[in-house]
Amino acid sequence: LAWGKQGHREAGFQPVAPRQLHEHPFEKHMRLRIAACLATVAAATRPPVVVSGATGRVGSAVVRSLVSRRGSAEGVYVLARDAEKAQAMHEGVQCLCAAHDDAEALAEAFGSVPSGFRLFVACSNSPQQAALEGGLCRAAHSAGCAYAVKLSTARQVLEMKQGGPYVAHLEVEALLAELGLPHAVLRPNLFMDEVTMGGFLGVAGPLREADECSHPFALSPISMIDVRDVADCAAVLLDGAQTGRGTGGEWFDLTGPDAIALGGELADCISELRPRPVSITACDADAFVAQRGLPPAALASLSGFLGVVGSHCADVTDAVRQITGRPARSLRDFVRDRSTVFLPSSFERLLGAPAPSFAAAARVATASTADDLEDLAADEVLIRVMVAGVNGGADTFSVTRAAAEATDIKLGAEGVGVVVAAGAEADYAAGDRVAFIGGGYSEYTRVKARLCNAVDEGGDAAEQTAARVSGLTAAVALGHTAPVTSGDVVVVTACCGATGSFAVQLAKAAGASVVGTVGSAAKVDAAKQLGVDRVLNYRHESLADVLAAEYPGGVDVAYEGVGGALLGAVCANLKPEGRVLIVGSISQYPHNDETPHHGVEGVGDIMDDVFRPGRTVELPNGGRLIGNVWGDAFSTGVLPAFRDRLYADLAAGEIRALVDGTRFCGVSEAPAAVAHMLAGRNTGKTVLHVSEH
User: Fold this and answer.
1) Euclidean distance between CA atoms 133 and 143, whole angstroms
2) CA 233/CA 324 separation, integer angstroms
């Protein structure tokens, strides 16, 4: 390396700023060789490890942790009765086939492992547990085992000494000491997956078909632990030659970072993934066990176990951090990592078919969660929809202009929600809050990850929804397609609407004077609060007269979504080189009894001739009607920058989203929300609260 740097200097290269520095080829070559050598040395000095119970819950996790730590399966052995099953679970790991009660087979298996190996001791709970683990430990000791890590159970459970496998753990711990075999004992508290996903104690099963269930631990704080943390602790100890740990004679009480009550924290974590909050209520432990149909011999032991765990296992230790150097995983992390287990079996979505109106087209359908998960592509995410945006025009035209043969049209243009599942190529994880495009009128929706953007988890979901389409349209139109500058006169029709309310604020921020139209007296104050300089109720005043009298110099930019006479007034008072951004034409939507004509010379139907084809039309005075307000924002790649700036300003309070106060809840109320908007009764963005929370 020194030679390489000297050669660099002799060649005349001068020191440069770190950003400009490029690694010399010789330096890169040497760096890679050194890294390879270090990896080889590390692999050679790590002790061989034999993992028993490698097809079980903890043993299999230990194997994965060891392989991950080492970067390969070199030196990792699994001991199993069913070698084929073990090999299938742990590809590339060397498999030793022997039953724990077969001394001859164990001796042969351990004889194939280099001396000085380390052993993970675990087998399933059973009346034979002490004998099985005892035979394993004796055989390993005779074969030259240097160190063992014994998986035990919670200290509080051991102390109750009511028989069964709990006494077996104590017997094996005593045997290790008797053999003089250096060892560590892991005494984990209740596993998170036992009370969440497990068939006996788990809540996931009952919650698949309902939003509530009962459990004896509903009100009992328990410092439960993630199995992966137990496995990581075991792997660090088994790799003790490198970690400085694992010298033997140690006991570790392993817990999670907090004492968790199922009816509180767990219910909250699961509720994040579901359209309705879940409820976990308390029940009697004996009755709970009896309902499981277990034999009488097991009832007493289990009842005692549940009693101890439910009343004495709230202590929190820092053992995971002491062993691994990092904190234990939280319950929220655990639930998010296994999010699909906690989803309901079915959900509601709104589907449509070709029809003359949105209300006539929409129907509520029940969908299978498993089907959507199965169909999830690598570049897709499944989202629990919190809030969906209501877009009167887009929603209406999605069914009125649909192909005659179209069926099961997924309705809803945009929304904000929580990712509950992500494909392998999607850059999101369960628990991420995102704004998205497509299929908003559904409790869960499956969309392409590229149509999502992360948003602040603590932000207002309705406001974030308003920004996704309505806000971004205004930001791009007035910041890129027809940039507004200080001193401009800008007209915003429907200035208290979903997108108009954003346009007002953006134009004011650029230094423009804003003329805004409203259709009712109730919206005048809202327009003034947005910052409109001249508010005009078009039912009582003429926009054409106001512009001619009060703004004789003409209009620089118009943000126009109404059409008819308002469009005509803007065009008549447009400056040469002025621009009219067409964001719609609500006066032409199907709910209207008649379509007023705009009267603009040389311009035909605004929707069919300008807006839908995205045309730009030159006006006689040199002004322009712009049908594609997005311009080249997609092709030039500037759109993400505008989006990110908009959401940053929203989070910082630099811009606010005006959200209509009328509350619509559940996918079945989407038609009413669309009708509310089309009738002009909204002030700001109309949204649908798809989830109840």
Assistant:
1) 15
2) 6
Q: How far apart are CA 402 and CA 667, in angstroms?
A: 21
In the chain, count H helices and then E strands: 29, 26
Q: Cβ(406)–Cβ(353) under 8 Å?
A: yes
What is the DSSP code (8-state) at residue 204? H
Which DSSP state fits 540?
Answer: T
Q: What integer pLDDT is reported at residue 404 of this predicted model?
A: 93
Count CA atoms closer than 13 A to 673's CA, side-chain side. 28
Secondary structure letter of residue 610 according to DSSP: I
Distance CA 96, CA 59 (A): 14
| DSSP output for 550-570 | H-TT-EEEEEE-S-HHHHHHH
Contact 340, 273 (CB under 8 A): no
pLDDT digits (tens, 9 = 90+) for 385-436: 999 999 988 999 999 999 999 999 999 999 999 999 999 999 999 999 999 9
Give pairs for 98-104: CB < 8 Å, separation 24+. Answer: 100/52, 100/132, 100/133, 100/135, 100/136, 101/128, 101/131, 101/132, 101/135, 103/135, 103/138, 103/139
- 535, β-bridge pairs: 516
Rounded Cα distance between 652 and 689, Å, is: 24
Q: Are 650 and 639 in contact (CB under 8 A)?
A: no
Distance CA 161, CA 167 (A): 6
Place of tokens 């109750």: 160
The Cα 583–Cα 566 span in angstroms is: 13
CA distances from 322 to 47, 231, 232, 233 (A): 21, 14, 12, 9
pLDDT reading at 14 higher than 60:
no
Burial bucket for residue 35 (CB in 10 Å: 0-12, 13-18, 19+): exposed
Residue pair 411/459 in contact (Cβ under 8 Å)? The answer is no
Token pair listed for 283:
């029940």
Average the pLDDT over each of 33-37, 449-453, 488-492 and give the range with the smallest value: 33-37
DSSP3 helix / strand / coil % (the chain, rounded to 5): 45, 20, 40
CA dihedral sign of residues 595, 598, 602, 608: negative
Provide the pairing of β-strand 489-492 with 513-518.
Answer: parallel
Question: What is the value of pTM for the model shown?
Answer: 0.87
Q: Per-residue DSSP letters for 91-134? A: TTSEEEE--TT-HHHHHHHHHTS-TT-EEEE----STTHHHHHH
Phi, psi of 282 (to 5 degrees): -75, 150
d(CA 394, CA 51): 60
Asked if residue 610 has pLDDT above 60, the reply is yes
Strand residue runs (E) in 237-278: 250-254
Tell me the longest C-alpha to C-alpha distance in the chain.
105
User: What pLDDT is attached to residue 30?
Assistant: 74
Contact of 186 with 252, CB cutoff 8 Å: yes
Burial of 265 (C-beta count, 10 Å sphere; 0-12/13-18/19+)? middle
Report yes or no: 130 and 63 within 8 Å, Cβ to Cβ. no
